[in-house]
Amino acid sequence: MKIHLPNSAFLGNIDPFLRGFDESHPKKLEITANKKWISVHPVVLSMVAALGLKIDSSNIDCEKLEAGSKHYLSRMGLFDFLNINTGISITEHESAGRFIPLKQIKKAEELTKFVTDMIPMLHLNPKQAESISHIVTELVRNVLEHSISENGAILCAQYYKKSNSIRLGIVDTGIGIKKAINISYPTRTDLESIQLALMPGITGTTKKEGGTEFNAGAGLFLIKSIANVNRDFFMIYSGNGMYKLLKRKSASKIKLHPDPFKDKHSKDGELPYWQGTAVGIDISLDQTREFSSLLDYIWETYKQAIKERKKAKYKHVKFI
Amino acid sequence: MNHIKLFEQVGSFAENKDIAREIRLRKIIPALEKGEEIILDFENINSATQSFIHALISDLMRKYGNEVLDKISFKSCNETIQKVINIVSNYMQERE
User: What is the ipTM of this complex?
Assistant: First the structure.
């Protein structure tokens, strides 16, 4: 496999980075990077770290990094995940208020501890923290319950002062969305599977409305809805498919759609194959609505989706 | 009346579905089987995820019907937690 850390890869311009990923030769990993400066979204770092965990460090070839930002990658813990010695020496400053280095979560208890520690680390107030805690919890639980990934979830986050936003990347190298959703719903493509997974009330664990005792199929819809209402980017990449929720215009009226393809978005169904799922999200702290008011929007849309699905199953009266 | 204080087990952010399931299986169902009424006390809990509430109550509604809500009272819930509980109880009542 080959992956290149570019000069810039954030959710708005991440597509070339994804297209440049070479998934061939899965037993080897070659990492190259921009020579001058590397400025990337946490989901990019989480993806590289997740690949590193799958491969023996003797089969990882990371070119000598020349960019000044190599210290940042080191501080985020990337080279520890890759288990390679780069010879970079840094003075570690307290991470509070700026970032959460790469972290691997394999158990529910580790998630509980992570969410508790995360809030003070990012210096969030309780109202800002609520949406972020929900997002992290739902995404990591998805990995733990559905991905069947032996390495669990790999995540990291970064606060950006200029935009006053938190950017977050959560990645796994498990079975991917298509296999997980196909347990209950047949789909032809990864993109179609992503579309279904983002719809309210759809879970791979059952076809029944209301879900199972453990899953309702609301988690991803909830996260996409939070991003939509707050006008944030949200990206999900699995297999060959990638869906990206684009920012709404600030003046536009909030309208949540059960079908993610009806939201303002971009998509690609022919990307290099990512074994597992990668999710990136930006959370603007200036715009973040109170979680409680988000729930009103979300429930209205959820209800509408259930009604439409029920209606689709109605027997049609035959007039002759 | 069976009073179940959740904070001691779940902390201020109720997100662990495994614990929700344990509470349902070990405390709520045995009490319901004895015909007792239940208070689920959310005192000191700041927020609860939809997944947590789903794991706590959805299977009760499936097993005992929507009437089980007559036997359960939700105490000291803030606005957010009330909304999450309403969402879960509403979509469970909308199911086929």
Answer: 0.86
